[in-house]
Design goal:
Layout (H helix, E strand, L loop, with lengths): L9 E7 L6 E7 H52 L14 H30 L9 H11 L2
């Protein structure tokens, strides 16, 4: 007898041939299919793990690219807060953060110009102006003289 009714452990497939009408039966041991499926499962899990690692490193890289100019701007703001108006922050990026840094730099220049104008006005009103004085030395004089 070629046909065994005990098909446990086998995957069967039946197909009828259209030109002859014969039935074709395919019997495959389930262990062959499950071993192929387990290999595919390991490959898929490996790809998922690789993607997670790549996403992790790309996110670290992107966060450094985005956060570094913000930290530089923050450090400049702390210097201005402490009274140092000679802060210079440079950024080559043309994005929103670069525009923010450029606006901050322009604001500091405007503040410095206003301080120098006020100090020159005070200085000239007290008739203390001399040709050897420049606005920085005048500013330093007033900052130390009138804290």
């Amino acid at each position: 007898m070629l046909f065994n009714d005990d098909l446990t452990g086998y995957i069967t497939e039946t197909e009828t041939l259209s030109n002859t009408g014969w039935n074709v039966f395919l019997y495959r041991p389930a262990r062959f299919i499950s071993s192929a499926a387990s290999r595919i499962t390991y490959i898929v899990w490996g790809m998922i793990l690789l993607c997670i690692v790549l996403i992790f490193f790309v996110s670290i890289l992107l966060s450094k690219v985005i956060v570094a100019p913000i930290e530089t701007l923050s450090a400049g703001m702390r210097q201005v807060e402490s009274g140092n108006y000679e802060v210079a922050i440079y950024c080559d990026s043309k994005d929103e953060i670069g525009q923010l840094i450029l606006s901050f730099q322009k604001m500091i220049e405007t503040i410095n110009n206003l301080i120098n104008k006020v100090l020159l006005t005070r200085f000239s009103s007290k008739n203390m102006r001399s040709k050897s004085c420049n606005p920085r030395s005048i500013r330093t004089f007033f900052i130390t003289a009138f804290p």
